[in-house]
Structures are given as C-alpha cells and as structure tokens.
Amino acid sequence: MEPQTEPQTEPQTQPPGPPPIHIDDRVQMRKPHPCGGNDWVVYRVGADIGLRCLQCGRHVMLARRDFYKRLKAITHQAKFPAANSPAYPEGTETN
Ligand SMILES: [Zn+2]
C-alpha cells in the first residue's frame, strides 16, 4: 500500500481541465489585441471573464468557454501560487 498523503510538488505540470482564474490575474491570449499588446489583466470573473488590455486599457468580455479557448498562458496569478491550485468551484460570483 502506498501512502496517498504525499504532497505533489510539480509546478511545471499543468493540471487537466481549465486552470482556475481570479481577479487581477495576468494572462496572455493566443491572438494579440489589435493595438499590439498581448498582456491582459482579469477584472471580472463569473459566467463571463472580463479582461482589460494592459497596452491600451480597453475592456473585453468573453464567455468563460471562449476565454479558455483563446487563453495562451497565465503569466501571473494574483491569489494562488501555481503549485497550490485547488479544484475551484465555478460560478461563485460575489458581485
Ligand atoms: Zn489593446
């Protein structure tokens, strides 16, 4: 019998399924914004994901499904380190 309480310390490995996203996370999308910027900050999380372009400041709202389809990388996670990302319940909108 192997112990099942061994912590997993593999920050390079991406978990299956969509990664959790939080307000103030910084992300990169597959297609850059027409202004040339490709860095976005998350300002709204709910059924839709709200993004603000860090280059021109324009706001964009994407459905959660479209957001994950276009997501390229999360460059900065505001609240949780990448190594410790629990299964996060969706639809917890507090606004
Ligand atoms: Zn822009």
Short description:
This protein is mainly β and 95 residues long.
Radius of gyration: 15 Å
Mean pLDDT across every amino acid position? 82
Say how many strands there are.
Answer: 5
Unreliable residue stretches: 82-87
Strand numbers in spatial order across the main sheet: 4-3-2-1-5
- Which term fits the overall shape? elongated
Order of helices and strands, N to C? EEEEHE
The N- to C-terminal Cα distance equals 46 Å
What this model shows, in words?
It is built from 1 helix and 5 strands. It has a 5-stranded antiparallel sheet, with helices on one face. With 95 residues, the chain is mostly beta strands. Strand 3 (48-53) and strand 4 (59-63) form a beta hairpin. It has one helix spanning 64-70; strands spanning 26-29, 40-45, 48-53, 59-63, 71-76. Mean pLDDT is 82; it is low at 82-87. The relative contact order is 0.23. The longest helix has 7 residues, at 64-70. The protein binds zinc ion (ZN). The site of zinc ion (ZN) has 7 residues, from loops.
Give descriptors for this structure.
95 residues; mainly beta; 5-stranded antiparallel sheet; 28% strand; binds zinc ion
